[in-house]
Amino acid sequence: MPGFELFGDKERKQVQDVLDSGVLMRYGFDGMRNGHWKAKELEAALSAKMKSKHVHLLSSGTAALTVALASAGVGAGDEVIMPTFTFVASFESILALGAIPVLVDIDDTLTLDPSAVEKAITSKTKVVMPVHMCGSMANLEALQQICDQQDLLLLEDACQAIGGSYKGKPLGSIGDLGCFSFDYVKTITCGEGGAVITNNETYYQNAHKYSDHGHDHIGNDRGAEEHPFLGYNFRISELNAAVGLAQLNRLDEFIALQKKNYTILREALSQVPEITFRTVPDEGEENYSFLSFFLPSEAIAQKAHKALGENGVDACFYWYNNNWHYYRKWEHLTQKKALGKLPQEVINGLPDYSKTDFSASDHWLGRTISCLIKLSWTETEVQERAKKMVEILKKTR
Ligand SMILES: *Cc1c(COP(=O)(O)O)cnc(C)c1O
């Protein structure tokens, strides 16, 4: 997955442009910039790549999620449906607005189960947020139908899935809003950064204002800008955007490399009769950043994960026990441990997660191992890794 593995002259050249002008800020300073508008350029390039009318860059993927929700008017007491398997940023962005994260089971796609989503909808639900974990997606058609019928927003967290697609459309561009992260370990990186994409003019207008203190960005005089509503600072800097520009130009190259390495591993593991693979919905195309597969039981998956590590097969993850990515270890959320006092809506609205039944999620994730696909592996290294994995997985009972 990580774009940092292939980092070089193209990135350096883009950053040098910014250093030469000395303008590190994305807005204003027109006379000093030598024509360099890296954030604007990256927004235009992403808009073309994602076939999405509007793109707004932010300081991180977490900021992108927060701004996306805020731009659609999500606020105190609104419920946002999110999966049990994701990154903590999902509920952080929801809670930041005083809204309520409602955790919902995953299925064999390893993200939102549409039938579980339907059951979780209440009169307070505003948004359904599928998270395309490890580069693949939920049954987005089913989720879209539910959202259309119930008048809910579909917000895709595509932070780990840039370059993937569903029914011919780029992941992130299918819902009302989509979010990307360019943090240091993502498929393309700019150090820290993120983006919101949407075809909705109002959400876009709200997003760029909200992420810059509510400034309306009308006219050339920053001091004279109006503030139609309260905002915050979630801006990206020109330095980060410059790196992102170089990396976006290499996205197709990165995805092709990932696909090649993924395919070698997958074909090898297909020889192990006990293994099945994560379900990718019809007409879905992963970005091949991870290869995720199911073992016959939780006990076997745990043994297999341990054996892989002990035999030098690195970068394989057992998410079930991971405290960043799975609900079982999120005590800070379930015990409502905030630094200050949480809004009353959140205190009253948060479900009692000690009583929630997530056995369906446990069933799938307890048996899952995901292997990170690296860009820098040579073909020999992938072949050797594949051989080793097959040997280990065939032996594990
Ligand atoms: C990385 C990530 C985020 C947050 O992105 P940051 O840029 O690190 O803030 C959100 N959701 C998912 C699924 C992620 O993997």
TrEMBL record:
Active-site residue numbers: K186
Record Gene3D superfamilies: Aspartate Aminotransferase, domain 1, Type I PLP-dependent aspartate aminotransferase-like (Major domain)
SUPFAM superfamilies, sorted: PLP-dependent transferases
Pfam families xrefs: DegT_DnrJ_EryC1
Protein family membership: Belongs to the DegT/DnrJ/EryC1 family.
Gene Ontology terms, MF aspect: pyridoxal phosphate binding; transaminase activity
Protein name listed in UniProt: DegT/DnrJ/EryC1/StrS family aminotransferase
Origin: domain of life: Bacteria
Modified residues (N6-(pyridoxal phosphate)lysine): K186
Alphabetically ordered keywords of this record: Aminotransferase, Pyridoxal phosphate, Transferase
Keyword Membrane: no
Keyword Endoplasmic reticulum: no
Alphabetized CDD domains for the sequence: AHBA_syn (cd00616)
GO biological process: polysaccharide biosynthetic process
